[in-house]
């Protein structure tokens, strides 16, 4: 078997004869190809199949240039089997480009065995193909083993180098030394980079601007790295360069290679190579005294570095002339000016002017090798403007001590103010601003404080023994200024208040154990040592008080009706209300006949008997009408004010034989006791008040034994009908 290989490159056609190597089986060593021969008895008439000798096909690679102009189909190789002399052979190819996508790139003449390429090839799409050639008889039986066909697409320089971007951005510090890396550019060529078709080389076509020289940069032709080639980069002169870079394949051969270009923008970055410089050697300003947070001078500066960067931002410092720290310098973020500002008030009387020394720097330190400028330091003169300041009281508040009770017209002190304006001839006048009790006055020229009333420590305007008053001092400046001062008077207590009893009144039951009493105490608005211990005693008038009451000390405060503190004393009238004590009866209330009119089974005078006038029964509001009566003027139905009779004391455990004697003795004592009711009068059940509208009934003498006509009771109405029937001698029914 043999094959012809025809390769076309450009307009040349190469004819290659391929010789197939024949190997016989069973020749040489075991395992090597041998040709087997069949015996003649195997070739009997019963078997018509042609048994060919085993052969190996070897086809060298087929190189096909891309972008061939044809004509197509273009024959590449011819394949023939040596058995086609005896039988008919059909040839076919399989693989990518034949019966697999992309289909029909290659074809073969099934009879002649000639293989063709049907269209131009593109190495950038597919650089090689692997096909297999087959030979079969008319029955489709394989007569030869498949042969491998390798087809390589030969690269042509049909692609230009391509940059990923048309514009590249890089940067480099100003003042950089030659050889400093700036940026990297790269172009890609789709052609075979193992051949000159894909080998790209770089060069700089132009530089804009040409300052300080036209060739400030260079580019590595193979790597695309751009570096500085000369010194002199200065951002303040040229802040940006534009460079045109060309990439060419064919190893940079401008005659045969293809080229493309891109633009490199190189920014020159700022370094702090320009120190800030003040625009003047001296600055000036003025400030009113006692003012803060005001700008008194404005410092201007020039810096040629990048605006609003740390290399440009100015930082001001005061290095002399302000030891106390009255001033600070604030940087204006927009203009970079320095604003001299007052942070502590200045006093014209102490400093009329300030001579400041100011230095300015940047936020960022100066670059290596850069020296500060002499113009970074200036002098600033600040004049202080005198302002009328208000008078002030040197001691404020001012405290003094006096005993209470100081009379009106007493000079307490001189409360004067000072004028801080020593260089102004001004006068001060005084007035009262606050005097809650209106106890004081002040001399309007010298500030002397004089009392206008008696000072009382117990006044409601005194707090914690201190009385406060506020005064005003006004100068005659333009404009006028004023200051206030507070005077605190500590009032020392004197014994000028008598004690008083507490509580003011008390209550006691009518029937009470004679040993019972009322607890009282005393209060004094003074303070120690002008208060207790208190001494209590009863008044001598009326005499009945000492007969009926006694005073005994319970503790340090004591008990009684009147008190004496040893220096000052007071007599207090203490009302004591007697309350009737109601006890639970031991019998049924309906069987109690005490102080009651017995009711019999007779109907009296109808409903009129029930119409009682209760307005005559009055509860006295107080006992003052009794206590205030002169001696000897008393109503006969009141208890006489004489010593009480002594009643026999009932034994704790009385003997049954002595009970009669005890009752008789008590009866005799009651009959002879003028203080026991009735007091030559009707029994008093309740006091009806003074000026009773019913008049007195004391003229009715129950002890009279003479005959008396009671018929007039019939004229008193139905209320006295029962009494008239009893005494009027009416007929008994």
Automatic annotation (TrEMBL):
Give a Gene Ontology cellular component term annotated to this protein: adherens junction
* GO process terms (BP): adherens junction organization; calcium-dependent cell-cell adhesion via plasma membrane cell adhesion molecules; cell migration involved in gastrulation; cell morphogenesis; cell-cell adhesion mediated by cadherin; cell-cell junction assembly; convergent extension involved in gastrulation; ectoderm development
The protein's GO terms of the molecular function aspect are: beta-catenin binding; cadherin binding; calcium ion binding
Cite the residue spans of the region called Disordered. 28-51
List, for all copies, the residue spans of the domain called Cadherin.
56-163, 164-278, 279-393, 394-501
UniProt keyword annotations, A-Z = Calcium, Cell adhesion, Cell junction, Cell membrane, Glycoprotein, Membrane, Metal-binding, Repeat, Transmembrane, Transmembrane helix
Compartments, record wording: Cell junction, Adherens junction; Cell membrane
State the Pfam families in the record.
CADH_Y-type_LIR, Cadherin
Q: Which domain of life is it from?
A: Eukaryota
Q: How does it sit in the membrane?
A: Single-pass type I membrane protein
Its function?
Cadherins are calcium-dependent cell adhesion proteins.
Q: What is this protein called?
A: Cadherin-4
Q: What is the lineage of its organism?
A: Eukaryota, Metazoa, Chordata, Craniata, Vertebrata
